[in-house]
Every structure is written in C-alpha cells, then in structure tokens.
Amino acid sequence: MNTCHLLTTKATKPEASAPPARLCLTLPYPPSVNHYWRRRGAAYFIAKEGQQFRARVCELAQDAGLSAPMLGPLGVQILASAPDRRRRDLDNITKALLDALAHAGIYADDSQVSRLELAWMEPGRGQVSVGVRVLAQRYVPLCLDESVSQ
C-alpha cells in the first residue's frame, strides 16, 4: 500500500482507533489529469504539481485525525469550486483526487469506490469538499426501476 509516511506511522501505533464510517475534508483544487501525469519516453510519472497536491492531501488527512484506511465499498461525493470562471470538464479532476486520497491512506485503493457523485459549486474558491463513506453493499441501484430493465 502506497500511503503517506505520517499516516502509516500513526496507524501502526497501538492506540490507533478503527477507521471512521464517514469522513469529510476540504482540499485544494486538484490538478487536472493533464497536469497530474507526465510522460518521458514510454514511462509515465506524477508531475511536480501532482506530487505537491498529494503531499497537501496527506497533511490534511493527518490533521483530520485519520488513523487507519476506510474498509469495504465506498461512496465518494465531490463538490468542486474552480479557482476561476474558465470552462472546465468536471471529470478531469477525479483521477488526481481519488489517487491522492488513496495515497493519503483514506482508503487502501481507489477500486473501493463504487459510487461517485460530482457537482460544481460556485467558482472562485479553488477547493473541493470531499465526503467519503462506507457503503452497506458494493452494488446499489440508483434510479432504474424493474420496469425499465425488463
């Protein structure tokens, strides 16, 4: 598991508590996937901007008192406020954000995320509010009733 050193150290202490069932964080606005990853030849790596974002998410997760990764299927809600009014694709921030949350030890792997909600807030703050919660089951029907699926 590739997590922040600070969270790994804190989670291994004997007095560490169980992971929370719900966690809410306010994070800086993430770099888009175009600025998060870089390529050198055939190799891909996380760019400096992406590394700085991951480090900040680690600090904020530590400040929130996270002691162990959340387990099981997870639902993630992201409310994003862009730094300015430029036109952006909302889905461009998800990869960097979900990757940074896993790196910070919020959860073990972003494959645990089985429900994802994204929405814009009024631009100008340059931040995202993220809610993560443990779900009772991995697959949850959202809006399809039985008459539609037949």
Mean pLDDT: 84
What's the arrangement of strands in the largest beta sheet? 1-6-4-5
**Oligomeric state of shown chains:** single chain
Task: Tell me the CATH architecture.
Answer: 2-Layer Sandwich
| Cα-to-Cα separation, first versus last residue | 42 Å
- How would you describe the shape? globular
Low-confidence stretches: 5-15
Strands, total number: 6
| Helix percent band | 25-40%
Sheet of most strands: 4 strands, mixed
CATH class, anyone? Alpha Beta
Q: Helix tally?
A: 5
Report the CATH superfamily: Holliday junction resolvase RusA
Rg over CA atoms, rounded to whole Å, is 17 Å
Strand percentage:
25-35%
The name CATH uses for the topology is: 60s Ribosomal Protein L30, Chain: A
Features:
single chain, 150 residues, alpha+beta, 60s Ribosomal Protein L30, Chain: A, 4-stranded mixed sheet, two-stranded antiparallel ribbon, 5 helices
Commentary on this structure:
The structure is a single chain. By secondary structure, the protein is of the alpha+beta class. It has one domain (21-136): 2-Layer Sandwich (60s Ribosomal Protein L30, Chain: A), CATH 3.30.1330. Helices cover 27% and strands 26% of the residues. The protein has a 4-stranded mixed beta sheet, covered by helices on one side. The protein has a two-stranded antiparallel ribbon with strand order 2-3. Helix 3 (48-63) crosses helix 4. The radius of gyration is 17 Å and the shape is globular.
Task: Provide the fold topology.
Elements: H1 5-11, E1 22-28, H2 33-36, E2 37-40, E3 43-46, H3 48-63, E4 74-81, H4 94-103, E5 113-120, E6 127-134, H5 146-149
Parallel strand pairs: 4-5
Antiparallel strand pairs: 1-6, 2-3, 4-6
Helix pairs in contact: 3-4
